[in-house]
Amino acid sequence: MCENCGCDGEDAARLTTLTAPGHVHGETAGHVHGHVHDLVHDLEDDLGEEEGHVVPLGRRVLARNDELAGRNRAWLAERGIVALNVMSSPGSGKTTLLERTVADLSRDRPISVIEGDQETLLDARRLTAAGARTVQVNTGAGCHLDAGMVAGALAALAPPDGSTVFVENVGNLVCPALFDLGERARVVLMSVTEGDDKPLKYPHMFRGADVLLVNKTDLLPYVDFDMDACRDAARRLCPGLRVLPVSATRGDGLDAWYDWLAETASGA
Length: 268
Description:
The structure is a single chain. The protein has an 8-stranded mixed beta sheet, with helices on both faces. The radius of gyration is 18 Å and the shape is globular. It is built from 10 helices and 8 strands. The chain has helices at residues 10-15, 25-47, 57-78, 94-105, 122-130, 147-157, 198-201, 203-207, 227-237, 254-266; strands spanning 17-19, 82-87, 111-117, 133-138, 164-168, 185-191, 211-215, 242-245. It is α/β, with parallel strands linked by helices. It starts with 9 loop residues before the first helix and ends with a helix. Helix content is 43%, strand content 16%.
């Protein structure tokens, strides 16, 4: 688990930075770091060591994360904010999908984005240009976002009541599936260029999905991809899973995606 991949512990925490494009980096990062630092250390004090033995590291990490996620979920619910955790492998088209979604929907409902990457502000700048209030979380060596990072990003974003917050997780089909962020729903994105066997290879990610978007359908004539096989494999892991074929660049299937967003925001 994450104690083996370099994304847990104090070194990883020091590498994590938050930046709001268009704001002074030092001021934003300093405010957010203090907020997250206090939350995490409060939880460490609460969890400590179980009487009589040391709690295994992986268990401590997930327990601490789940507590923070619960706080995030309560904070969001009090304000009527819908948070969606968007996960995929690198290059599946998460940012392009969110750019299009922000451009099409933000006039009707305010949209903010927490953008997760190991380095750069490239995607955050794209989403800001599309019209979203955006905070970039750079994880350094970390391979996923966690609830503490999201707590800090929410503090920096201050999303309005009744709005939508997309959390674009670090591109990875393994570790993000393990970490609750306090989201209302999990969106998993894959592309037809990755192959129809992705649900079989990464079952934990697809088992926890609320909706699966199969992106880049405009490339179907040029790749070996069986949509029915992919859908069947995903639904064996998650019966009743909504599977939506889309093309974020051409716009195919996006009405069904927007309908799902509206249903999720209304609690339907």
